[in-house]
Design a protein that fits this description.
alpha+beta; DNA Polymerase III, Chain A, domain 2; 8-stranded antiparallel β-sheet; 17% helix; 40% strand
């Protein structure tokens, strides 16, 4: 194998692949990336941890000799991060990978390629095409709400549903819920309803280009193709293929959790609300992670208090003309949602009373529900 290609493109691809490869595994092959050089395609970089897999095609690579090598992902990534030349050449040298860039020369020992798991191929038909930019935004606005602690398997993933003319993503950990929707321009022939792990979706979010231009291969970078294959979901975008094992389990009936529209609710800018919450949270602790929200006409007052530490009081002008109310929430949960909103966006925070969930939204296509905390 011998291939020459732009260093920046190689580094970017290896970075994504290294994010998939296991960092500590009893099977060394799972800590590696596979490099496949073909004259007709270019260089393909693959990695898998058996739950998530990725394949990235670099068609601009100049392949002098075809071949395949498997090398530790973290080691290759650390080398490429230190290379400052525009081009890098990868060459097979007696089972090792020789890396040359300018006056920099490295050699990394390879692993046995026979132990590499074969990744599935995206099917030629039966896939669903989705708008990439919208999907990327929806992933960002939901994936953070998945459960982190051990518990129900279904809560450790995002419900990914495509039905008729609607794309919907929902995530919950039992204490908060994030739901994003998008109206599609055309109906899908077959419904897709699966639970996908956050690792694969976060990777897909990073792979979608910032601008909608021409992607590698025949697809536009502005489209993500989705297909199901043997208990796996596959996403293809801009020369990259992400494969994820589906999460088993039954997702909660989330429609019943989302409060109906309430007459009580204040409006403010997302950035201003986030700043006030961060300031009020400065005097919280792990044992006392709550902020009291006193709602009055055109003003909310956020308070926190922790024994032996102190207390905070932050006032924020808002738009509100309803009755006074006292609420309590985990500020971190609210900040998680506000971080994925545009700072200048107007948000509406609805509530019924201090014992009911709060509902935060910045438009009709996004809703975030957070459970209250009982105040002392």
């Amino acid at each position: 194998m011998k291939v020459t290609l732009p260093t920046a493109a190689l580094l970017n691809a290896v970075s994504h692949a290294a994010a998939v490869a296991s960092t500590k595994s009893p099977n060394p092959i799972l800590e590696c990336v596979a490099l496949r050089a073909q004259r007709t395609k270019g260089l393909t970089i693959e990695a898998t941890d058996l739950d998530v897999g990725i394949s990235l095609l670099l068609p601009d690579a100049q392949v002098s000799e075809e071949g395949m090598l498997v090398v530790p992902a973290a080691r290759l990534l650390s080398i490429l991060r230190e290379v400052d030349q525009d081009e890098t050449t990868l060459t097979e040298a007696e089972g090792s990978l020789a890396i040359q860039s300018g006056r920099n020369h490295f050699r990394v020992r390879g692993e046995d390629a026979r132990n590499v798991a074969e990744l599935p191929v995206f099917p030629s038909s039966g896939g669903v095409k989705l708008p990439a930019a919208e999907l990327r935004a929806m992933i960002r606005r939901t994936v953070f709400a998945t459960a982190k602690e051990a518990g129900r398997f279904a809560l450790h993933g995002v419900l990914f549903r495509v039905s008729d003319k609607t794309l919907e993503l929902v995530a919950t950990d039992g204490r908060r819920l994030a739901r994003a929707t998008h109206a599609l321009s055309t109906s899908v022939a077959k419904e897709v309803k699966v639970i996908v792990g956050p690792k694969a979706l976060s990777l897909l979010e990073r792979l979608v280009p910032e601008d909608v231009g021409e992607g590698a291969g025949s697809e536009r970078a502005g489209t993500v193709s989705v297909a199901l294959h043997e208990r796996q979901v596959m996403f293809r975008v801009a020369g990259a293929l992400v494969i994820s094992r589906l999460i088993d389990g039954t997702f909660p009936v989330y429609e019943d959790v989302i409060p109906k529209t309430s007459a009580k609710g204040f409006r403010t800018e997302a950035g201003a609300f986030a700043t006030a919450l961060r300031r009020a949270a400065l005097l919280t602790t792990r044992e006392a992670m709550s902020v009291q929200v006193d709602v009055a006409r055109d003003l909310i007052t956020l308070r926190s208090r922790a024994a032996d530490i102190g207390e905070a009081k932050v006032e924020l002008p808002v738009t509100y003309d309803g009755p006074a109310e006292r609420l309590g929430f985990n500020p971190g949960f609210l900040l998680d949602a506000l971080k994925v909103m545009e700072p200048q966006a107007e948000v509406r925070f609805e509530f019924t009373n201090g014992k009911s969930p709060g509902k935060l939204s910045d438009g009709d296509d996004y809703v975030y529900v957070v459970m209250p905390i009982a105040l002392e």
